[in-house]
Amino acid sequence: MNTLLLEELSKAIGARQFVQFTYSGQTYLLEPHLLGQNKTRQDCLCGWSGERVESQGTKVGWHCFLLSDIKNLKILEKRFYKTRPGYDPYDSTMSRIYYRA
Q1: Which tens digits make up the pLDDT trace of 68-96?
Q2: At 62, is the secondary structure helix, strand, or coil?
Q3: Distance between CA 60 and CA 69 in Å, rounded?
Q4: The dihedral of CA 38, 82, 99, 75: what is its sign?
């Protein structure tokens, strides 16, 4: 468990700040909503992605990312003010929730 990453992401969720990070070689801009553990006991972050920074054609919508694979995390000053359609604060794909929007 990367406690520093968990702490930074929890703060971003609480303040409703966008995050930017690299995942599988792509840079993402995400509205983080849910931080927890999936059914295989891996820490993960779920949020709304409207776009990938470096590439077009990204599916807009809800995505989950394994914390172990997130690189170069940046907490941005830009904020989001509402949850997106389909947000489930009690996501059944999670076995444990640490923090939610």
Answers
A1: 999 999 999 999 999 899 999 999 999 99
A2: strand
A3: 20
A4: positive
